[in-house]
Amino acid sequence: MENKVKASYSLKNKRVVLLGASAGIGLATAQAAAAEGAQVVIVSGNQQKIDNALTELPANSEGYAINLSSEDNIKNFFSTLGTFDHLVYTAGENLTLNIIAETDIEQALKFFNLRYWGALTAIKYASPLISAGGSISLTSGTAGTRPGSGWALASSICGAIEGLVRAMAVELAPIRVNSVVPGVIQTGLWDSMNDIDRNNFYKTMEDALLLKRIGQAEDVALAFVYLMKQQFGTGQNIMIDGGTVLV
Fold first, then answer.
1. Domain 2-189+216-246 has CATH 3.40.50.720
2. Taking the domains of the chain in order of start, what are their residue ranges?
3. Mean pLDDT value across residues 217-228
4. Among residues 221, 106, 92, which one has the least CA distance to residue 160?
5. How far apart are CA 182 and CA 206, in angstroms?
6. Which pLDDT does position 7 carry in this prediction?
7. Are 192 and 95 in contact (CB under 8 A)?
8. Which residues make Cβ contacts (< 8 Å) with residue 137, sequence separation at least 6?
């Protein structure tokens, strides 16, 4: 038993499916998993971005353009995929921050589609295909623990994801279900801000953070790789935040 567990720590020849992986944290995680010997399958809603991402991955990688806001599309994708070892869900649109008085409720409802309902739907159709010793890793964020003014929707989604992680860890055991909880990471997630506001935001965070720098996609990718390789942690939300929640 001991040797079998140790052997499973490797990602060599494992098949890893990453949803929301044509750029940013998802692509960095695909690259990190591939560097460990995994065969990666990347998915996002834009074919051109998938094609571009595949040029940065090994030749045995696969890529598919799928609308992850559609249950039928997710169902059809997994119905033809076959078995695999690990599911990583990093899909999410650019953040839009509004105080509650200026929040459009109809738009707010849609904000959950990709980040929460897409993740839940992916779990529904992917979990029967995951091989023994496999895992599911979702994405939360420090807004769930330490929100600022205007972060009601982002905080709500993070809380929902972390609750989903715990519930799925119980229901789907022995499949391991966890999430990574990034702090502020320098990716396209913040592109809805204009350049001046975004740079000021980064500078404010750099000055405040214990590690005195903004996180990079590669920092978070390492956490996803850990969650795939480790064999005894489930129902956990692993914070990679540069000290965000401590300051």
1. yes
2. 2-189+216-246
3. 97
4. 92
5. 15
6. 58
7. yes
8. 86, 87, 88, 89, 177, 178, 179, 180, 224, 227, 228
